[in-house]
Each structure stands twice: as structure tokens, then as C-alpha cells.
């Protein structure tokens, strides 16, 4: 499951890029509304909540999927032990995702995109706007996995640049990474203890097959629901280094294999 914190922070990207990704993911009408009431969205939390709710609904209508809503870890169909280490499901913010992934500077067609804790699959569909070789979501909850499968079957493929999309229902600690270059996406999907074990598996994969792996981590800055930041786990790795994107970001970190 993805960690779905309430993200407090902004991304300082060129306005034209923000508008491009907002229009692509959310449609032109909501993009224009967002521009007009931008100041109010920052000043009035209730209005900001209303706008984000409509943006999520618009995305689902636009692509014929169902990714909106929040599912708390306690309501997931997983064991009590897994519930303690899991985070709630809440769909990834589309515009900031598009901005960060577009700044990676890679040949997407050579990379497989992996989303740990993929939930209903929203990040998979956002990634499908890039020409990745393949896109795979790894989800422990069977109910969320089935929702993702239904969305994959229903999504309007003509809007996507990658149509090889799959969801697997599997424990992240057991998932075998495919060979070849990877982009691994983490929307704070589990606690630090699990992240340490998942990172160990990533490092073992790198030792067996040295290649480029980029890890994109969206983490909470301020939230009553999330107290652990997984950044220090990645920073402790001798096989990864944190890199700076050609844009300034807040609440998004990118690491790559050395």
C-alpha cells in the first residue's frame, strides 16, 4: 500500500510544465479553475480539499478508472501484522508526479516502472503517459489489487504511451525485481522496518545484475499520520546516491544506483 500522507509543500517548476501536466491529467477546465483560484486554494483549506476532490474525480472520468478515495491501513484485507507496517491508500498527486518523472532524464523505453504499494493503480496510469518498456504495480491487499486489475482492463488505452501495465498481488519483500533498468516509485508505502528489508532486496538485485535503478520517493513533510521518513534508509545504502533533478522539489527525493 502506498503511504498517503497529507502533503505539505510545493514544487517550484516552470509554470508551463505545470499547466501541461495538469491539462494532460486533469483536463483543461479544472486546470483553468485552478489557475483562477490559485491564491484561494492556498489560503482556504476547505476550498483546497474541494478542488482536490474534484481533480481526483475528473481524472477517473477522463481515463475511465476508479482510483479516488482513501483506504486506511486498518481497513485493508491484510494480516494484523502487515496492518502495523502498512500505510493508508490515497492516490498520487498527478501533476507533481508528471513533473518529477519527466525530469529524470532517461530513455523511458529502456526502463521498467515498478510501483511498490500500487493500490488501485493510479501511479501506474500516470506512469503510462511516459513510454516505459513496462509498468508493474506490487500490491499486498487483494481487494486493492483487484481494483487495479479492473482499472487496467477499463482504462482508455488510446490516451497512454505505455500499454504494458500489470498489477501483481504480492508482498513487497518477496517480489523479484526484473532485470534491466528500473524506475522504482515509493509513495511512502510502508514503515522503516519493511523499507530496510525491501532495500536489501534491491541491493542484492543490483549486486547480481549491475544496472541503472532510479528510486523516486515521495515522503511526508508534516503529518499526524506518518512519523517515519524513509529517506534515511535510502541514504544509508552504499549502492545508491541521492541526485538533484534539474528542478527544485519539496517532498520528493530521487536516488540512483552507483
Question: What would you say this structure looks like, in words?
Answer:
By secondary structure, the chain is of the alpha/beta class. The chain has 2 domains: 49 residues, no CATH class; 188 residues, 3-Layer(aba) Sandwich (Rossmann fold). Helices cover 40% and strands 16% of the residues. It has 10 helices and 9 strands. The strands form 2 sheets. It has a 7-stranded mixed sheet. Strands 1-2 form a two-stranded antiparallel sheet. β3, α7 and β4 form a beta-alpha-beta unit. The radius of gyration is 17 Å and the shape is globular. The N terminus is likely disordered.
What is the element layout, followed by pairings?
Blueprint: H1 15-26, H2 28-36, H3 38-43, H4 45-63, E1 70-71, H5 80-85, E2 89-90, H6 94-102, E3 112-116, H7 122-127, E4 134-139, H8 142-154, E5 165-169, E6 182-186, H9 192-208, E7 213-218, H10 231-235, E8 240-243, E9 252-257
Parallel strand pairs: 3-4, 3-6, 4-5, 6-7
Antiparallel strand pairs: 1-2, 7-9, 8-9
